[in-house]
Amino acid sequence: MKTCLIVDDSRLIRRVARGILEDLQFQIREAGNGQDALEQCRAEMPDAVLLDWNMPVMNGIDFLRALRQEPGGQAPTVVFCTTECDMSHITEALSAGANEYVMKPFDGDIIEAKFSEVGLV
Amino acid sequence: MNSTVTEASVSFIAEVVLKRSGLILSADKGYLVESRINPVARKEGFASIEALVAAMRARPDEKLMWAVTDALTTNETFFFRDKTPFDQFRDEVLPALKGRSTLRVWCAACSTGQEPYSLAMLMEEVKGTYPGMKLDICASDISERVLEKAQAGLYSKFEVQRGLPITHLVKYFEPAEDAFRVKPALRQSIRWRPFNLLDDPRVLGRFDVVFCRNVLIYFDPPTKQKVLERIASVTAPDGFLFLGAAETVMGVTDAFKAIPAKRGLYGRDAGVRKAA
Ligand SMILES: C[S@@+](CC[C@H](N)C(=O)[O-])C[C@H]1O[C@@H](n2cnc3c(N)ncnc32)[C@H](O)[C@@H]1O
Q1: CA dihedral in degrees (B152, B158, B163, B168; nearest 10)?
Q2: What is the ipTM of this complex?
Q3: Is A86 close to B163, i.e. CB distance below 8 A?
Q4: Domains B7-72 and B84-272 share a fold
Q5: Nearest residue, CB atoms, A94 vs list B162, B170, B174
Q6: B115 within ligand 1 shell (Cβ under 6 A)
Q7: I need a labelling partner for B118 at 20 to 30 A (CA). Which of A27, B45, B164, B201 fits?
Q8: Does any CB of chain A come closer than 8 Å to the CB of residue B87?
Q9: Is the CB of B118 under 6 A from ligand 1?
């Protein structure tokens, strides 16, 4: 079973995403900000990360840059999932090492399409 | 507004649509007629579908008939739909036709344009491998409404997240209000034409590859046969045809042959030999 770390400061979003990803056979872990996520990744790298942008303590883009510097941190497939949907944010995410990008609001179809785009399902 | 529609009106409308487009509406499609034709009736100033039908019966107004027909087309589509055909185009068709200086492709029921744009993007991605080859895409549909949208190349956040890799969004689109627009160079590389598959396609030219996906399913067998044979008449002897996942030429016509182990991909005789 593949693991996915859901990183979002909204418990509601984490719950919705968890439901969708569990249906896609992922084992789920959750983090409420980038710092928490980074610590969880240091302990054990997940196969995938679903990543919000704007969060307290450490935001998504800073988390991603830090993750890619970690030993083994190139491995997880990172899918941004955010309300930021202008080209400059998307480009910034890609150059920081994101693999795909979901623009909120999302649904199960979009998550499934994007995860299969990057070979996760 | 009266929202019920009689069986007689449904079958009158079904006949109008069948005659113009070949699309079959079975009698149980009353709900479809209701939901799609109510807005047409309202827009044309009728109080109900019944009033619209009465007017059409009294005076056959072609513009009205076409508005009704257009409203009953199913335009569902998305970028790189089903993925496999696009992989086959890249991995089978392009190598088989690599000698061409211009590869002429026809998207014969392109709906809102995602299919031809997917092909144009794909070609951009592989053009380094085929330096001498230019892609000439002709995209057509019976519905001028969808063609207008296709030509504008404006897609919602939702539409660009169905099948389109994010790297392609960044490379081939520009932001536009709350949506994304295909960049002008890509938009202008495609020829958009209103075209009814029941008509003779020679007016569009001749082609090396035809995409006719997810439209034959709505036709009856004789119409399927006629359409496929007409497509064959404008397809190069070593050319290819792509059909939708639920469609086949088997038992319909010999004008195209299935390419072994390549589902959905068909060749005229020479094409089959080259790709197999
Ligand atoms: C479901 S869409 C398919 C779009 C695209 N080829 C795909 O596979 O995603 C079917 C399209 O066929 C068009 N169509 C229906 N009857 C037609 C006809 N007689 N001639 C040309 N196009 C037709 C409809 O307007 C509609 O846009």
Answers
A1: 60
A2: 0.93
A3: no
A4: no
A5: B170
A6: yes
A7: B201
A8: no
A9: no
pTM score, two decimals?
A: 0.94
- Domain B7-72's class? mainly alpha
What residue ranges do the domains of chain A occupy?
A: 2-117
Residues of A in contact with B170 (CB under 8 A): 87, 90-91, 94
Residue in chain B nearest A106 by alpha carbon: B158
The residue ranking higher by pLDDT, A40 or B261, is A40
CA distance B165 to chain A (A): 7
Return the CATH fold of B84-272: Rossmann fold (3.40.50)
- Tell me how many degrees the CA angle B214-B219-B224 measures, rounded to the nearest 5: 90
Q: Domain A2-117 maps to which CATH number in 1.20.120.140, 3.40.630.30, 3.40.50.2300, 2.40.260.10?
A: 3.40.50.2300
Residue A6 CB partners (closer than 8 Å, separation 6+): A14, A17, A18, A21, A28, A29, A30, A31, A49, A50
**Segments making up each domain of chain B, as ranges:** 7-72, 84-272
C-beta separation of A33 from A56 below 8 A: yes
The tokens for B154 are 């404006």
Beta carbon of B109 within 6 Å of any ligand 1 atom: yes
Measured CA angle at B249 (ends B244, B250), to 5 deg? 125
Ligand 1 pocket residue status of B196, Cβ below 6 Å: yes
What would the pLDDT profile of B36-93 be if each residue is shown by its tens digit? 999 999 999 999 999 999 999 999 899 999 999 999 999 999 999 999 999 999 999 9
| pLDDT per position as a tens digit, A4-57 | 999 999 999 999 999 999 999 999 999 999 999 999 999 999 999 999 999 999
Length of chain A: 121
Q: Where are the alpha helices (DSSP H) in B105-210?
A: 114-126, 144-152, 166-172, 184-188
Q: How far is the CA of B245 from the centre of ligand 1 (A)?
A: 14
B2 has pLDDT over 60? no
